[in-house]
Amino acid sequence: MDTTTQPNEAAPLSIVFAPWKTPVENDELSLVSLSYGGVSTIVDCHSEGFSLEVPASGSLGAGDLEAVFLSVEKKSVVVFRFESPMAFRVLDEHGLLDIWTASGETPRPAQTTFMVKGHKWQQESELSWFMGGIEFSLMIATDWNCLEVVGQEPTVELRPAIVHLHAGK
Fold first, then answer.
1. Partner residues linked to 156 by β-bridges
2. Tell me: the pLDDT tens digits for 77-135?
3. Are 37 and 31 in contact (CB under 8 A)?
4. What is the signed CA dihedral for 123, 126, 149, 35, rounded to 10 degrees?
5. Pairwise CA distance, residues 80 & 68, whole Å
6. How far apart are CA 53 and CA 48, in angstroms?
7. CB count, 10 Å around CB of 40?
8. How far apart are CA 119 and CA 74, in angstroms?
9. DSSP structure string for 26-38
């Protein structure tokens, strides 16, 4: 028996980056909110004799994801709206070490928005990619909280932000 590999050892990662052109692909962004329109806003508690419903709070469709960021360069609110993504996750920089290591070896096409495949999450949750017919996930990288989405490209809308000037600036 070959003792250099373990029987359940994962295959080496082959991370590939691809461009995802957005108006903020190289901006410094900060994640300020994330909203998910769950499949149902009603939970039936039949055996208890009642149901619970979340009051309507916006225009988010069932299964849709909306991520709101602030762009320092554009002094704008940036809204990414994904229709029915297969999966998504928000991680701090530390949970993405495999991606950052790979981008040190092969620079990613943009600093903030890009596509990626072949990383640990794709290996761990391959059904999300397979069932959605998705090859690359979409990444929005910030200095701290990063959003990764398995799904189709979203709409991206820039809105004016309220700018508060500091004294002496």
1. 80
2. 999 999 989 999 998 866 688 888 888 888 889 999 999 998 888 888 887 878 878 89
3. no
4. -120
5. 6
6. 15
7. 11
8. 31
9. TS-EEEEEEEE--
In order of 18, 85, 121, 136, 144, the CA distances from 99 in angstroms are 13, 21, 10, 13, 14
Long-range pairs for 94-99: beta carbons < 8 A, 24 or more residues apart: 96/146, 98/13, 98/15, 99/15, 99/139
Token representation of residue 120:
């640990």
Take residue 25 and report the two structure tokens written for it: 């692909």
d(CA 82, CA 152): 7
Question: Span 13-22, mean pLDDT?
Answer: 91
Residue 39 confidence (pLDDT): 58
Q: How far apart are CA 1 and CA 123, in angstroms?
A: 26
Structure pTM? 0.81
Name the pLDDT band for 56 (thresholds 50, 70, 90): low
